[in-house]
Structures are given as structure tokens and as C-alpha cells.
Amino acid sequence: MTSEPVIRSSDALRNVKYEIRGRLARRAQELERLGHEIISLNIGNPGAFGFRTPETMRLAMIENLAGAEGYCHQKGIFPAREAIVMQQQGRGVQGVTAEEVFIGNGVSELIDLALRALLNDGDEVLIPSPDYPLWTAAVTLNRGRAVHYPCRPENNFQPSIEDLAALITPKTRAIVVINPNNPTGAVYSAELLAGIAELAARHRLVVFADEIYDQMLYDGARFIPMATVVHDTLCVTMSGLSKVYRACGYRVGWAVLSGNMRVAPDYLASLELLSSLRLCSNVPAQWAVQTALGGYQSVKELITPGGRLYESRRAVVAAAASSRFLMLAPPQGAMYAFVRVRTDELPQFDDHTFALDLLERKHVLVAPGVSFNVPYRDHFRVTTLPDSAMLQKVFVRIEELLGEYVSSPQSTRPTLVEARQRFK
Asked: Is residue 202 part of a domain?
């Protein structure tokens, strides 16, 4: 009897990872099917924690459904693109028109299109470490090489211009800036952003500015749009409705090209070609953009004292401060905390083993730090979207587990090899 042929996957996927929705998340689903209640903190999904999209955005879609049944222009509907232009101009970004705005099915699709239009085999892209792992995956899928520049915990996850400069080679084509940062919550100063812009201009690099959390700021942190400091090279700013407007399921993101557009006519044409090949992005949800950007910014109620996001963040900061085992650089923006485990207390700590143990024994799902392309194994990320009471409960469970690591004999704890065997 001959065996059936195996359908093999593409070699292009060999080094592509997205552990935020990977094996740990699949195991969490298995446990839920067995009847366990899992607190899932691995993904920043506002709708899963009771946040609602503003009603005015829903009404804008409903009122325009009759005009949203056909394809629209490949770049998006004009009212949405014009609203994005107005927002950029209001922030001090000069020279942008609707022709430089592309609307996509979330920022995720636009990251892929923007890199596909730019990269050739072996081209390098500088990406922060820790990163949002889609950037690394998308560079790899589009034949490039991700080169990670360190944003060190001891420097509150701020990168240094010297580190960036040392990594630039003749193959470097672009630099990615995620600000406010996912997963760390770091917010970059005007001086740092200006230094990155100058470095990019000197080496003729495209700057990709991932700014999806631009209005989620705490304790006086100030957001500086990258496009306001990039003048002598191309800047591609990416944002959308998912986070600030709690509309992840609408799948509406945008990319705005600015800066020195004289160097980018071919690139602009390539982006339009790729946008045309997928016909257009979700049309009904695009009608929510103008209302979202031009209307009342309800996120402000969430990020000030007494607001849901502010109080949840404060609960995480307090839990880490009172812990025997944890340290945290308080996040200044976004909706995450990148928590460090004290290896002086737990010298054998491994983030992946811990994340699996926390899921199996305490029914809490977090993302291990290694998911974010870092060289160390002593961090994990949680989203701060749950209310403060739930987060306090989560950190009690975390403290219990880490305490068990200290008090239990080493032989009763799974090794990293054993933990990974559970996924096979």
C-alpha cells in the first residue's frame, strides 16, 4: 500500500511566527472546550472586555449601507481619506492630500502591502526589539530580513540612535518606529524621533511609523507624530479604528505617505497597483472614519484618572510594585504592560514555560516575552483592557504561581523541554 502524498506548506513560512495567536492560544481554546474559564490577556481586543465602538460610528455605517454594496476606489472612499488628511494637517503634517492616503483592511494588511511594494530579496528592515511580531513576520514573508534594534529594559525600552546607526548596512531599506509602543507602552520624545528621522534621511531609508495607539497616553505623556519630523525622506504613517475607537472588527486602517514625496513616485504607483489587485477594503466600515476622526474623542474619558484604561493600568503598576517577583517600567501609552520577572529570585525562569504553567494551573493566558523577538526570557505581556478588579485577581494568581516555583522542589516543575512536548 502506498502512502498518501503529503501537502507541504510554502518554504516562505518557515521562519514566520505569530505566537500571540499560536500554540498557547490554541491550548487555551482546548481548555475552554473542557469547561474551564480562561482569562485571556494575550490580545488587545477591546470588544472582548466590554468596550463598545461609539454609537455615532455605528450609525454612520448604517446610514450609508445603501451606498456601500459595490466596490469603491482602491485607495478608499473619498470622505474617509479626506478626514484622515484633515487629522494629519491638524497635527502639523504638511503637504498631504487624499491621493497619499490608502485605506486597508486593518493596519495589518497595509503593513504587508507597504513592505511588498518596497522589498527585494535580502533587503533589510530595522525593527524594534521588542516588536509587534507582525512586522517581523511581514518582512520575512516579503523576502526581506528583519534586523532588530534593541529597546533595552534598563533604558525603559527607549532605543538609542547609536544602536540604530550601528545596524545600518547597504542592504537597509527602512526603519520601523512603533510609538506608542506595543508591547512596552514606551512613548518616544521629540528629540529621539528627530534623531531617527535624521538618521533615516542620511541613509535614504523609508520610515514606517506605526501609530495605532496615538491617543492612548497616561500621566502627561506626549505623542509626537513621526510625520512632523520626517521631511527629507519618505514617511509612511499607519493608524486605524481598531484601538482608540474600539472597532477591531471593522478592519479599517490607513497608511499616509508624507515627507519627501519626490523620491517616491514609483513606490506610490506600486502601492496603488497592490491595492487594486485586492480591489478595495471593507466599504461599509469606511463610512465610520469621518465620524470617528471628526467627532467627540471618547477615548479621553478612558485614559484620565477614574477612566477604565487609566485605572486598569494603575492596578497593573501597583501589582508589579508590590510583588516580590515582578518589575515593570510603567507603560506611558497603549494598552499593554511588558512585565519583567526578577531572575535574582527565580534564576531558572523561562517565559514560555511560565506562560504554559500559568495557563494550565491558573487559567490565565499571557504572551511570553520571546513572542516579541527579544533575546531574553524573563518578560511577559498582558493587555490592560480588563477592569482593575480582574487584573488584581490575575496578578494574585501570577504571584501564587511564582511563589510555588520558589517553594516547590525543582523536580516537580516542568522543564522547558517537557513544556514544549505538551504542544506536540
From this structure: yes
Same domain, 380 and 315: yes
Question: What amino acid occupies position 340?
Answer: R
32 and 160 inside one domain: no
The answer to whether residues 284 and 64 touch, using CB atoms and an 8 Å cutoff, is yes
The strand ranges marked E within 179-268 are 206-210, 234-240, 253-259
Q: Is the pLDDT confidence value at 409 over 80?
A: no
Number of domains in the chain: 2
CB 238 within 8 A of CB 209: yes
Percentage of residues of the chain with pLDDT beyond 70? 96
3-class SS shares of the chain: helix, strand, coil, % to 5: 45, 15, 40
Backbone angles phi, psi at 259, to 5 degrees: 85, -140
Domain that holds residue 403: 15-51+301-421
Closest C-alpha to 39, from 362, 422, 407? 362
Find cell 514573508 and name the residue.
141
Is residue 133 pLDDT above 90, yes or no? yes
What is d(CA 236, CA 131) in angstroms, rounded to the nearest whole number?
A: 18
User: Model confidence over 351-384: pLDDT tens digits?
Assistant: 999 999 999 999 999 999 999 999 999 999 999 9
- What is the rounded CA–CA span in Å between residue 188 and residue 8? 43
Question: For residue 261, with 0-12 CB atoms within 10 Å meaning exposed, 13-18 middle and 19 or more buried, which class applies?
Answer: middle
Residues 271, 258 share a domain: yes
Output the domain CATH number for residue 406.
3.90.1150.10
Predicted TM-score of the model (pTM): 0.93
Q: Could you tell me if 357 and 419 are in contact, meaning their C-beta atoms sit under 8 angstroms apart?
A: yes
